[in-house]
Amino acid sequence: GDNILHISDIVKGVEVSAYTGHTDTIHTVTSHKDILATGSSDGTIRLWDRRSTACTRVIGAAIGTQGNSGISSISLNNFGNLMCASRDDGLCMLYDIDMGKLLAAFSPAYPQHLPKPSSFTETPGMCCPDRMMEL
Q1: 71 close to 135: Cβ distance less than 8 angstroms
Q2: CA 45 to CA 98: how far, in whole Å?
Q3: pLDDT tens-digit profile of 85-126?
Q4: How many CA atoms lie within 13 Å of 55's alpha carbon, on the beta-carbon side?
């Protein structure tokens, strides 16, 4: 693949938008109202504005392991303020999107290495320089 999420109008058979920013295969997509979330083998979750296709936040999920592990699934709650994500290595994380916090993390493989919930560290990123988050 081209690491781009393509959204198409299936009736007309044309692409209506594309979301570019991941550096590896996108494995999971979810949405709530105007928020679109994607998870990739590059170890990041990207939040997008569905109206503009702009990346609004990048969440790096490299905790509890040496190196990156791809994102295998993500889900947003009914209000769009909480997100649950899981990685290929079994780590599950619960985020408060509005507050920019990791609320909880659990992994049967790495229980002793998980950090206590804390605020995200904001650092410059490729897609959206003012909204990059790394744990």
Answers
A1: no
A2: 15
A3: 998 888 888 999 888 888 888 877 655 555 544 444 333 333
A4: 24
Q: What are the backbone dihedrals phi and psi of residue 37, each rounded to the nearest 5 degrees, phi first?
A: -125, 135
The token pair at 94 is 């619960």
Structure tokens at 33: 């109202």
φ/ψ region of 129 (left if φ > 0, alpha if ψ in -120 to 50, else beta) reads alpha
Rounded Cα distance between 56 and 53, Å, is 9
With vertex at residue 29, the alpha carbon angle to CA 24 and CA 30, rounded to the nearest 5 degrees, is 155
| CB neighbourhood size of 59 (10 A) | 27
Are the C-beta atoms of residues 101 and 108 closer than 8 Å to each other?
A: no
| Cα-only R_g, the chain | 15
* pTM of the predicted structure, to 2 decimals: 0.76
